[in-house]
């Protein structure tokens, strides 16, 4: 990855929701949204609640479909247009290129915290010992008590689950990182850890798009602040 | 890729090896690979609206396809047609066989289909009694499939049976017990072991967690998820349980009254459903 390499190229994205079972109500959320993000850059989205920030991020992850426009993401030498890509292409992209930390952890029953965190790196075929060392390091940095590592996170507090989620999101050095309020339920100490992680990701050339409520986090990581209604 | 990583010691080396390996994988994965299974214009109706029709899709190696929809929507009918157990009224199912090359399932000889069923394919039935022989030992249930592909050495067969019992978390001490003495969850796991012992490429599953209670389901799902990703299996799984679909499937086909109403990446279909029926299905009203 070299500096000033285009990593994310969104143009003319349209997104509306139609609620078929509630009288067919339809409303537009994204209208001709465009955004470019370079390697090493962190763009922070802002706008009112309900303005479409998470929708935009989910469209970048191909978690939401779009009604129009194009979303190109860099995968090695290639730009992949994800709104028309096959599911297996998206899955490969998510495995090695595209990281996403949502506000909530979707737990897999029975799987202990340490494994939840290791999994994405293991899936890339990396040696288990290396994955484990990296997972422990992240959990430690995020102050997740060691006694929790062998337990499934289903019963953890909101903040604990969120830190497990962050550790899982940062275990692979994804070239593109999407962060939806990862610091929402964290105290100041842990927010600072997340800020460090984001800065490290930027330093190795990752393109980051994030949503942050806290002024301090935003100040610390953002290269650019963009209003979701203006893109 | 594993080898590349295993050989690495230092941290800087890890990074480099990972990048090399990723580039290799990248190249391998995106050269044009052929679908494992191609389904074209498949129709099978018992009566108007009862069965399945207009089915078209490709399944690629390593993909897990979930078929979801309410009871009676035609999921099991479709699965039977795909797995050479039910002749469709019309349409083609093309399978890319390791042994026979590209073959049209319903235009080839019966004997070829039988070979597929006992070697390259696995079928996990909703009711273990449909997939197991209940009155012979667990070891014999696994061994039988090995013998069907020509394995003759008793010691090897027993060793492989033990290996697969361990893989599905059944104590090898139970190898001589009959499945009728097993719990429902163990029977399902034995069924899976019996199927996997011949290293199939493609597994068909119909409601594999259907009759099990929730904690047993979770264990089975976890096991399936691990085996599928570790062995790189291609799977077509029928389920009416959207949580199961979310956990296991890469992509989904949503069926209603015998037709596919929506298809796509699993989390996209479940989180941003487009079709009125899918919206109803994922909304809490119909979710269990
Ligand atoms: N899957 C969905 N189905 C229907 N409507 C949706 C869906 N996801 C989001 N919306 C709607 O789209 C609009 C934008 O939501 P979004 O979650 O993107 O807002 P946001 O800017 O992230 O807000 P917040 O700051 O509160 O998180 C809202 O009106 C929301 O209700
Ligand atoms: N052998 C059969 N003969 C007649 N009708 C059948 C047969 N098998 C299934 N059906 C009917 O076809 C429809 C689809 O059934 P099935 O594929 O079992 O649905 P699902 O697996 O989605 O619950 C249902 O109306 C069912 O009653
Ligand atoms: Mg939001
Ligand atoms: Mg059925």
Unreliable spans of chain A are none
Radius of gyration of chain A equals 18 Å
How far apart lie the N and C ends of chain A?
26 Å
- Helix/strand class of chain A: alpha/beta
Helix % of chain B is 40-55%
Structural class of chain B: alpha/beta
Binned strand content of chain A: 25-35%
Mean of the pLDDT scores of chain A? 95
* Strand content bin of chain B: 15-25%
- Number of E strands of chain A: 9
Task: Please explain how this structure is put together.
- The complex is a heterodimer of chains A (231) and B (288).
- Chain A has helices at residues 53-60, 87-96, 113-122, 128-141, 158-170, 188-203, 215-221; strands at residues 6-19, 25-38, 42-46, 68-75, 78-81, 98-101, 176-180, 207-211, 224-227.
- Chain A is an alpha/beta fold and 231 residues long.
- In chain A, β1 (6-19) and β2 (25-38) form a beta hairpin.
- In chain B, the strands form 2 sheets. Chain B has a 6-stranded mixed sheet with strand order 6-7-8-3-9-10, sandwiched between helices. Chain B has a 4-stranded antiparallel sheet with strand order 2-1-4-5, covered by helices on one side.
- In chain B, α6 packs across α7, α6 runs parallel beside α8 (184-196) and α7 packs across α8.
- By secondary structure, chain B is α/β, with parallel strands linked by helices.
- Chain B contains 12 helices and 10 strands.
- Helix content of chain B is 42%, strand content 23%.
- Chain B starts with a helix and ends in a 6-residue tail after the last helix.
- Chain A binds chain B through residues 18-21, 58, 62-65, 75-76, 87-92, 96, 108-111, 123-127, 130, 173, and chain B through 1-2, 5-6, 8, 14-15, 18, 21-23, 25-26, 29-30, 60, 62-63, 218-219, 221-222, 225, 229, 247, 250-251, 264-265, 267-268, 271-272, 274-276, 279-280, 283.
- One magnesium ion (MG) binds at residues 53-54 of chain A.
């Amino acid at each position: 990855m070299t500096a000033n390499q285009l990593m994310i190229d969104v143009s003319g994205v349209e997104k509306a929701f139609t609620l078929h079972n509630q009288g067919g109500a339809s409303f537009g959320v994204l209208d001709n949204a465009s955004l470019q993000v370079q390697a090493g850059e962190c763009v922070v989205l802002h706008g009112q609640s309900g303005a479409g920030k998470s929708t935009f991020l989910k469209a970048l992850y191909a978690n939401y479909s779009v009604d129009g426009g194009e979303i190109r993401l860099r995968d090695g030498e290639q730009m992949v247009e994800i709104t028309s890509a096959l599911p297996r292409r998206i899955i490969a992209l998510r495995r090695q290129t595209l990281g996403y930390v949502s506000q909530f952890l979707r737990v897999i029953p029975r799987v202990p915290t340490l494994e939840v965190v290791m999994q994405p790196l293991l899936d890339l075929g990396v040696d288990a010992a290396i994955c484990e060392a990296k997972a422990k390091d992240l959990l430690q940095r995020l102050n997740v008590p060691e006694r929790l590592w062998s337990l499934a996170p289903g019963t953890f507090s909101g903040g604990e689950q969120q830190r497990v989620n962050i550790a899982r999101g940062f275990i692979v050095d994804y070239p593109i990182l999407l962060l939806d309020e990862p610091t929402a339920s964290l105290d100041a100490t842990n927010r600072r850890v997340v800020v460090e992680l984001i800065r490290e990701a930027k330093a190795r050339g990752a393109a980051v798009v994030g949503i942050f409520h806290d002024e301090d986090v935003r100040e610390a990581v953002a290269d650019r602040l963009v209003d979701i209604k203006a893109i | 890729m594993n080898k590349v990583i295993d050989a690495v010691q230092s941290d800087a080396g890890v990074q480099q090896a990972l990048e090399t390996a990723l580039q290799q994988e990248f190249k391998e994965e995106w050269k044009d690979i052929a679908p494992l299974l191609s389904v074209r214009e498949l129709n099978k109706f018992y009566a108007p609206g009862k069965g399945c029709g207009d089915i078209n899709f490709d399944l690629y190696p390593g993909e897990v396809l979930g078929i979801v929809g309410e009871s009676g929507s035609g999921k099991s009918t479709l699965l039977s047609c795909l797995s050479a157990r039910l002749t469709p009224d019309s349409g083609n199912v093309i399978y890319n066989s390791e042994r026979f090359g590209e073959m049209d399932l319903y235009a080839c000889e019966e004997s070829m289909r039988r070979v597929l069923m006992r070697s390259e394919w696995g079928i996990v039935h909703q009711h273990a009694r449909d997939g197991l022989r209940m009155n012979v030992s667990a070891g014999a249930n696994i061994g039988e499939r090995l013998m069907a592909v020509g394995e003759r050495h008793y010691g090897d067969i027993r060793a492989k049976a033990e290996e697969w019992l361990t893989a599905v978390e059944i104590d090898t001490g139970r190898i001589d017990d009959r499945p009728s003495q097993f719990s429902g969850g163990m029977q399902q796991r034995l069924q899976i072991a019996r199927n996997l012992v011949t290293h199939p490429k493609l597994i068909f599953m119909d409601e594999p967690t259907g009759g099990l209670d929730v904690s047993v389901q979770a264990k089975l799902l976890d096991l399936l998820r691990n085996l599928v990703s570790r062995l790189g299996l291609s799977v077509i799984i029928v389920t009416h349980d959207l949580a199961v679909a979310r956990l296991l499937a890469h992509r989904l086909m949503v069926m209603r009254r015998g037709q596919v109403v929506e298809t796509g990446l699993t989390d996209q279909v479940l989180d941003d459903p487009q079709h009125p029926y899918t919206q109803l299905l994922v909304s809490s009203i119909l979710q269990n």
